[in-house]
Design brief:
- The structure holds 2 protein chains of 2 kinds.
- By secondary structure, chain A is of the alpha/beta class.
- Chain A contains 13 helices and 12 strands.
- Chain A has a single domain, classed as Glutaconate Coenzyme A-transferase (3-Layer(aba) Sandwich).
- Helix content of chain A is 37%, strand content 19%.
- In chain A, strands 1, 2, 3, 4, 8, 9, 10, 11 and 12 form a 9-stranded mixed β-sheet that branches. In chain A, strands 5-7-6 form a 3-stranded antiparallel β-sheet, covered by helices on one side.
- The longest helix of chain A has 14 residues.
- Chain B has a single domain, classed as 3-Layer(aba) Sandwich (Glutaconate Coenzyme A-transferase), CATH 3.40.1080.
- Helices cover 27% and strands 20% of the residues of chain B.
- The two termini of chain B are 18 Å apart.
- In chain B, 54% of the residues are buried.
- The chains are: A alpha/beta, B alpha/beta.
């Protein structure tokens, strides 16, 4: 189906398996929303299950999406600002790939969080590049041929240029969306609004599908309007073990267990066998984590941040 | 609180001293771009003591939160709690580039005498493409180093980390010395301070080199010099870093009751204790903000 056709569909609902198999293909470039939370975890496990290869990851600060897909050998190239697990630790698979070439070498092009954000903004604006004060004079510029430093043509000092990022596929995880694809973050949107617009195909996964009337009650929250969206999938707890604002708290103890699990290449394989291949879908993953535990994380979050919606 | 009334804690830990030292770098009403860990705790301690109107900002796009729990990351739900503005990443960073953010907080694996930081790769005899140690990378650090009005750097004091030149400049300090930041038109003023586990360094206005300004209690200037690779200058007015006050220590222990940042609590954190921590911090920290 042509791009226009799916973006104009009036009911974009599908399963996660359908969405990933329809839009994520071997050799594609792919980008995900999230920043230090709101990570796109459930779709990552589904991409591991389906095994698409030779991916180029475009991202600001990916966690599971970077570490796991590098560890499984599905990523060929990363264009990122950072790759790790923040408070939980560093990325063992990124380290193994760069330091030891395991499971295979990857190409790395490094930017900063802001300038990856600007790359998606350029993509979302239909422009070839964006200009920034960041990067010039540092090693990022020196080791990355995608960054150009020029004299400000209006008579100022040096400025850096970064090229538009236009991924083949974007996967955005938000709080809620309607079946048309109108997508709302109740908390922060990180680079999601621009990643969604910059991509050729955009899959929105959300904690809850709501009615369009519900969306219209708070239209200022709509970060991505329906015309930029190809698929909508309801994926409750789709960021677990990460936090989702107004939905559930960070499962830090689970993350520590995961970090200990994936510390070695063998351990990582076992973790994938258990949590990706050992679960046929995200629902089975949730069952395995335990619904009681997930509900506890949701319940505790309401104590701190209760949505008025 | 006047200086004479300050009661210093006696049973404080090194981490608590570092948090207090970071807190004291922050002035009231400043906008602070915070990262994860001890600097972030420092910003919260500042907000709960001498700087009630400080505005915290994080990379995910949350501005001005007053969280009733420890912030476990720059996109933790704590970052949206009682915030004044929740926006997107590029917008928060654009506000910084525009000049609205007073202080940014940085760390790294290596620092040099001009405050240039490396959090990308340790060559270790190898190269950028094939390094000994691959680190996470810039994240927002390059942007913060260039555009925040001033930066605070937190580092572990080791000779192999305090270098004449870093392997890779992730976050620029003064690059090769005076005039370099101006050449590239960086909006921000550069590093103001390095806080290590042994000492506090500041930067000479003329040479832009880091010098020793203060040693932590029990540490000598000579011991610090041994853990620095360049010919470190020592301030003629060398100070001793004040320990945390009782008030600061109590706040730190309430904010980080399970010692996630100020001890070894992270590795042994059970789900039950974690939920307990969240429950109790809601009660105890809420009161502190009221």
């Amino acid at each position: 189906m042509k791009e226009e056709d799916t973006k104009k569909s009036l009911d974009k609902r599908m399963t996660l398996r359908e969405a990933i198999s329809k839009y994520v293909f071997d050799g594609c470039s792919i980008a995900f929303s999230g920043m230090g939370g709101e990570q796109v975890v459930a779709p990552t496990y589904e991409i591991v299950r389906q095994g698409q290869k030779n991916l180029t990851l475009m991202g600001d600060s990916p966690c599971e999406v970077g570490d796991y897909l590098v560890g499984t050998g599905q990523i060929r190239r990363v264009e990122v600002a950072w790759l790790a697990f923040a408070v939980a630790g560093v990325s063992p698979n990124y380290r193994r790939a760069v330091e030891e070439g395991l499971p295979h070498k990857i190409e790395v092009r490094e930017f900063s969080n802001y300038t990856m954000g600007l790359r998606f903004l350029a993509g979302a604006m239909g422009l070839p590049f964006m200009v920034t004060r960041s990067l010039a004079g540092t090693s990022l510029e020196k080791y990355n041929d995608m960054i150009k430093v020029i004299e400000d043509p209006y008579g100022g000092k040096k400025v850096a240029l970064v090229p538009a990022a236009k991924p083949d596929v974007a996967i955005i995880h938000a709080n809620r969306a309607d079946i048309l694809g109108n997508t709302q973050f109740i908390g922060f949107s990180s680079n999601g609004e621009n990643i969604a617009r910059a991509a050729a195909r955009t899959i929105v996964t959300c904690e809850k599908i709501v009615s369009t009337d519900e969306i219209k009650k708070a239209p200022t929250l709509t970060s991505v309007p329906q015309y930029a969206v190809d698929a909508v999938v309801e994926v409750p707890f789709g960021s677990h073990p990460w936090n989702m604002p107004y939905a559930y708290a960070y499962d830090l103890p689970f993350h520590m267990k995961m970090m200990a699990g994936i510390d070695t290449a063998d351990g990582f394989k076992r973790w994938m066998d258990e949590w990706a291949f050992g679960c046929k879908d995200h629902e089975e993953y949730c069952e395995k984590v335990g619904w009681a535990r997930l509900k506890k994380l949701a319940q505790i979050e309401r104590k701190f941040c209760k949505s008025k919606l | 609180m006047s200086t004479t009334e300050k009661k210093y804690a006696e049973d404080y830990t090194l981490q608590e001293l570092l948090v207090a030292a970071a807190a004291r770098e922050i002035k009231d009403r400043e906008v602070v771009f915070v990262g994860v860990g001890i600097p972030c705790l420092g910003a919260l301690v500042a907000k709960l003591t001498h700087a009630p109107d400080v505005i915290l900002a994080v990379e995910s796009g949350c501005i001005g939160p007053s969280p009733y729990r420890l912030m476990l990351g720059i996109g933790d739900n704590a970052c949206v709690e009682n915030a004044i503005c929740i926006t997107s990443l590029w917008r928060a960073f654009s506000d910084q580039q525009r000049g609205y953010f007073d202080i940014g907080m940085l760390g790294g694996a290596q620092v040099d005498k001009y405050g240039n930081l490396n959090s990308t790769v340790i060559f270790g005899g190898g190269s950028y493409e094939k390094p000994k140690t691959r680190l996470p990378g810039s994240g927002g650090a390059n942007d913060i180093a260039i555009s925040a009005k001033r930066t605070l750097i937190m580092m572990n004091q080791q000779k192999r980390r305090f270098l004449e030149k870093v392997d890779y400049i992730t976050s620029p300090g003064y690059l090769d010395g005076p005039g370099c930041r101006e050449k590239y038109g960086y909006p921000g003023g550069g590093p103001a301070v390095i806080i290590s586990n042994m000492a506090i360094f500041r930067f000479d206005e003329k040479t832009k080199e880091a010098y020793l300004d203060s040693v932590h209690p029990g540490v000598t200037a000579e011991a610090v010099r041994k853990e620095v690779s360049w010919d470190l200058q020592v301030s003629p007015d060398l100070k001793t870093t004040p320990p945390p006050t009782n008030e600061e220590a109590n706040i730190i222990r309430t904010l980080d009751s399970q010692k996630v940042y100020t001890g070894g609590g992270l590795k042994n954190l059970t789900f039950e204790n974690y939920i307990k921590m969240l429950n109790s911090s809601h009660e105890k920290i809420k009161v502190m903000f009221e």
